[in-house]
Amino acid sequence: MLSLQATILFFFPLLFNPTAAYNPSQSPSRNAILLSNVPTLTLYANRKTTHRRVSAIPQLKCVGPSKEICSLYTPDVMRCTNQGFDYDENDIQWTCTAELPPEFKLGSTEVVCEGYRDSNDPWILKGSCGVEYRMLLTNEGERKYGHLMARGSFDTRSWGEFLWDLTKGLGTMLITIGGFVALMSYCSSLTGGNSRRTNGWSGGWGGGGGGGGGGFGPPGPPPPYDYQPGRYTKTETWQPGFWSGALAGGLAGYGLGNRGRSSGQRPAIHTPSTSSSSSAGPSSSTRESTGFGGTRRR
Questions:
Q1: C-alpha–C-alpha distance, residues 83 and 92, integer Å
Q2: Domain segments of the chain: what residues?
Q3: Phi, psi of 208 (to 5 degrees)
Q4: Is residue 56 a contact partner of residue 50, using CB atoms and an 8 Å limit?
Q5: Helix 156-199 vs helix 242-262: angle between axes, to the nearest 10 degrees?
Q6: What Pfam families does its record include (predicted)?
Q7: CA torsion 259→264→266→271, rounded to 10°?
Q8: pLDDT tens-digit readout, 184-230
Q9: Which residues face 124 on adjacent strands?
Q10: pTM of the predicted model, to two decimals?
């Protein structure tokens, strides 16, 4: 009876915590291995890891600093060397090296392996390790691909061109408005001249002399009481004001704009140097680059 109770007490926790059933110091399978027993790892581009509990992952995966930089170059092979453990004997530290063009260098690297029974298992599945790395730019790479690092909410080159196009659009609008105002003013002046000729009082103050009889005739009738010789209608004259100033400014801006376009000049907009386009691709020569990092289990 006592032995039965002891057996129940022993197996009952295992029903709710299966990980308590395995011995961390004993290999659960021929395909399981401790990372501390792995001296080196060789990873290849365009290859997948082995997998058992979770999905396979690429053996080499670039994780930054941007998709544009990662897409420029992928190392064909990377070799990682076990450098011992950190605070935890299962947290193995690695030194990873790869051949890269002079525009790039390896940043941080992290070896990611599948725990055999769970993500906390010190035993990992053979062949399940991959490397996540960061691809950084050297000084030469900054000169060639630095504009890709500036991409965020706006592309600086496109933003500068947008400002230039906006300036041209505003200049064209001012010229159009100024031309319309000038035409209306000209028509107004013509209408005002005609009204002065037709609406003016033509009566004389004295009549002509009679034929054969000397002397002056009786004076003509006086001007009407509502006659005001100093006033004119609104359409008779045109005074310079706001619209004439806008017209002058628009014409001046148009002249300056034409002068700049004829000489091939554009506004000085500071944008990152793009003397070498990213479409040219990295250099054909390579050199060894090294990155450092730890381990993560999945």
A1: 7
A2: 10-150+282-297, 153-193+233-271
A3: -75, 160
A4: yes
A5: 140
A6: SARAF
A7: -170
A8: 777 777 776 555 555 555 444 544 444 444 445 555 666 555 555 55
A9: 33, 115
A10: 0.53
